[in-house]
Amino acid sequence: MAAKKACESFSKSLIEDVHKWGCMKQTGVSLRYMMEFGSKPTDRNLLISGQFLHKELPIRIARRAIELDTLPYGLSEKRAILKVRDWYLDSFRDLRSFPEIKDINDEKEFTQMIKAIKVRHNNVVPTMALGVQQLKKGMDPKIVYEDLDEIHQFLDRFYLSRIGIRMLIGQHVELHKPNPAPHVVGYIHTKMSPVEVAKNASEAARAICLREYGSAPDINIYGDPSFTFPYVPTHLQLMVFELVKNSLRAVQERFMYSDKVAPPVRIIVAEGIEDVTIKISDEGGGIKRSGLPKIFTYLYSTAKNPLDEHTDLGTDDRITMAGYGYGIPISRLYAKYFGGDLQVISMEGYGTDAYLHLSRLGDSQEPLP
After folding, report:
1. What CATH architecture applies to the domain 12-184?
2. How distant, in Å, are the alpha carbons of 43, 170, 228, 239 from that of 51?
3. d(CA 287, CA 294)
4. Which residues are in the Histidine kinase domain (predicted)?
5. CA 289 to mean position of chain CA atoms
């Protein structure tokens, strides 16, 4: 049925082209390569980068469009999923109809187009979340959501691929900026201070906690602010923000009606030879051992769901304190994208420790789903 809908609004030849490109091999790049290549954004390098993306992006986008059309449990037929699938097909069509990039003028035009593609896909995560909610609504309430392995695996692949596509487009677009800040190469900061990023992310999370609850626990950060390593600050900001937001909510809700002062959330930044590790510790009561596997799934949240059929995703950019159930699994994918990981260890009745491992070697290739 979903495939039929695709064919109604997209030509048969386009759908055939999607299937052809979806079978081609993807090419992964490493953080180190992006950094070294982007450190000299000459016309020649920008042309090479544009030509690479002209071939690479349709392959990655085609793979996701095909998968969106073949999901189990009738997920492909949900309205929100069809909307996302159409965005992917539109973007594939735009890329494939763009002629060969021969000179720097072609490359500039191409850059404007992929910039527009990136904007088109801005709301993919909440729209996918809405599609999954639409699926959950129609399912037997006795179904154990974390057992729906195929959907979790698909969403992991889908979001990991999305991180990669947005990184490649964003990196290419940023390299066109005429006067980059010192030590900045596109999206990458070659001397990023994890302590500084953690501080900014924590302040943003605390502001939201204050807005939603009227008060917020303190946050204490331990680590050397002068220590730096090459990484993508926006990725780290997102991960720390999500983890701190969860910790603040847990502590706030546990101590809201208590006479005791809410204990602070602690962030520790440790510098190793292979990894930089950031530990976020709270005394928010922890998670039941049986609930731990669920926190990495996309169909689970302990909070009230902020999405419903009537949500206009285009207008409200306010970040709610919780509810998608996506913060933790997507943060783990951001960590994995450059060779890191995220682990959560809980003491039920006391609190939770989240360990964010970031690879500082920058050599690992993108994981390509």
Report:
1. Up-down Bundle (1.20)
2. 12, 15, 33, 32
3. 10
4. 233-362
5. 26
Q: Which amino acid is at 279?
A: K
pLDDT (0 to 100) of residue 310 = 45
**Strand-pair partners of 265:** 219
Q: Which residues of the chain have pLDDT under 70?
A: 1-8, 141-147, 300-325
- pTM of the complete model: 0.88
pLDDT at 291: 86
CA pair distance 335, 112, nearest whole angstrom:
29
> For residue 303, what pLDDT is reported?
47
Per-residue pLDDT at 245:
95
Task: Let me know: does 50 contact 111? Beta carbons within 8 Å.
Answer: yes
Q: Which two tokens stand for residue 81?
A: 């999923």
Domain 193-359, CATH? 3.30.565.10
Q: Residue 263 CB: number of other CB atoms within 10 A?
A: 17
Domain ranges of the chain: 12-184, 193-359
103, 171, 246, 362 from 115: Cα distances, Å: 19, 11, 32, 26
Q: Give backbone dihedrals phi and psi of 189, rounded to 5 degrees, phi first.
A: -110, 120
Report how far residue 121's alpha carbon sits from residue 87's, in angstroms, rounded to the nearest whole number: 7
Helix (H, G, I), strand (E, B) or coil at 341: strand
What is d(CA 216, CA 205) in angstroms, rounded to the nearest whole number? 10
Q: What gap in Å lies between CA 240 and CA 234, rounded to an integer?
A: 10
Residue 243: half-sphere exposure toward Cβ, Cα within 13 Å: 33
